[in-house]
Structures are given as C-alpha cells and as structure tokens.
Design brief:
MetI-like fold
Amino acid sequence: MSAVFQPIPPRPAPVRTEGFVPWIRRNLFGDWKSAVTTVLLGGLIVYWLPGILNWSLLRAVFEPSADVCQQARGVGACWGVIAEKYRLIIFGRYPFGEQWRPLVATLLMTGLLVASCVRLFWRPWLGLLWVVVLAAFFVLMGGGWFGLTPVSTDLWGGLPLTMMLATLGIVLAFPLSIFVALGRRSEMPAIRTICILYVELIRGVPLISVLFMASFMFPLFLPQGVTIDVLLRVLVGITLFSAAYLAEIVRGGLQAVPKGQYEAAASLGLTYWQMQRKIVLPQALAIVVPGIMNSFIAIFKDTSLVTIVSLYELTGAMTLALNSDADWRPFKIEGYLFITAIYFAFCFAMSRYSLWIEKRLAVSKTR
C-alpha cells in the first residue's frame, strides 16, 4: 500500500510581526531607551498640543482685517495676513495685473519636474520638453514676445524665482560636478590641480560671499559699457558653488566602486568615457543617492540668500510684503509659518522621491 503525502496545515505565528501594533512595538518601544524617549516626547506633545491648537485654530483670525487681528494679538494666530498678502509673498514685486504670467510659468515648471520624476516619461523627448518649458518660462516671466509686456528681472520674485534658481542650479551643477569629480581623480596633473583648486576655493567661502562677488565685484572687472544681468550672475554663482559640493559627493561614490570594476571594464577594451558611462558612474551615483538629494535640498533652501543682492525670492518677498505695511508688520510669525510650509512641501517631496529611488536600486541589486 503506497503512502500518500499529506502536508501539515500552516499554524499562525506565535507573535504578530505585521500591522500597526507590531510597528509601534518595534519602532517606539524596542528597548528601554526607546520607550523612555517615546513617553517623554508623548508627554510633551500632550502638554503643548492644546495650546498650539488653541492659538493656531480655535482662537485664530482668518479674516483679512488688521483691526480684528490686532484685537486677537497674543491670543490667536492671524492667518488673515496670508489672505491679505499672499499675492505679494508668492509673486514678489511682479506687476499685479500681470501675475497670471508667473503663475502659469510656475505651474509649467512644477509639471516639468513632476514629469521628470515619473519613469513613464523617461524618453528621449523629455530633453526637448525641458527646452520648451524653460523657454516658455522665460518668455512668460520676461515678456517682450507675443504681445507680453516686458518685465525686468529685478521685479521677478517670490516662488517663481525660487523655483527657477533651484531648478537651473541643480540642472547645471549636477553634470558640472561629475566632470569635476572625474577631474579630481584624473591622472593628468594639470586637470587634477585645476579641479582641486576649484573645489577647495569654492568650499572655503560661504555662499553669501560668492553671491556678493557675483553681484557687486564681478561687474568691476568687465569692460566699460558691458553689463551682465544680475539674475544671470547670481545663477552662475549658485551653480558653481553647488557643483563644488556635489563634486565631492560624486567623488566619494567613485572611490566606493571596487577596483575590480575598473579592471573588468578595461579588460573588455572599453575606452575611458565608455567605462565611466556604462560601468563606473551608474554604480557610483547609485551609492551616493542620499548625499546627492541632500545637496539638492540644500540648493533649494540656499536660494533664500539671494535677498542680499536685492532679488526677493520667497523669503525676501515675505519680508518685503510685511515690512512695507505697518498694519501687518507684527504678524511675521504667521508669514514665516506660511513659507515654511511651502519649503517643507518641496523638500519633503524630494526626500520621499530619494527613498523611492533607493528602493528601486535595492530591487535591482537583489536580482
């Protein structure tokens, strides 16, 4: 009589490892140190939360009336300042009647960035789309074409200026940083020395100094009668400064690639640029994704420093909007919280996208 195989039915796990309660147990109460920290932070939240809710919502003023806000001063938040000044905060000193133009330009730029982050749109025509959208952005902002009223760059400001400086700063600095990182590892002494001097010189001064020199010092070296727009000079300064820091991140990734990869690529008869493009750089950039994204976030936030050269981006436009009106000047906290939320939304989106890229790379490595 032949035996019949009969599997034993699976039994439930003795301890749940998935779900909300296991997550809390693992992340918040993993050991006694974690448990004590969780209890202390929870106690502070319980202590402060009622007061925060009372100030920000329950007793807050949402009406754009300076008199009503003055009566609630010290008791509740005045969100009416946002309702009153949001256009000046978002668009800066751009002419009021033409503010639909920076709105459309910002939406186009945002849509381009979102499309560039979606894998479905990673096609050869994406480069052409970048050229078209950037051209449309500058045409809308500057005018002088298609019947649009010309607007000088010194009137650009707010969120459109922040997004433009951050986007172009990242797009221009990233490829430059790759060439500088490769140059620092080059066997040619002249190229290696130039790249080292560039990185060490730029990293040795703060960004404010670079912007100051680009705005005020650089024109002194130009021939008489030759002028370069201050916005272009600031963009070049941000690009060069960001590229120096990004280059060191990329160089760290290049050093992390095993030497055997270089030897294997050379044994296949690949040229230097073929080896870098197909073998080395894909691995090096994958290793330093967190560092690269951290630098991108820093570039986005560092655009707030251009206020020192009279370009009023988001932070500068908020300060200008409230300082120019004595009735709303006492409510700067609400204004700062508003632009903080905007900065946080963009920076948080970039950090989440970085985590998504890391997960995709982790899947590729396990195959």
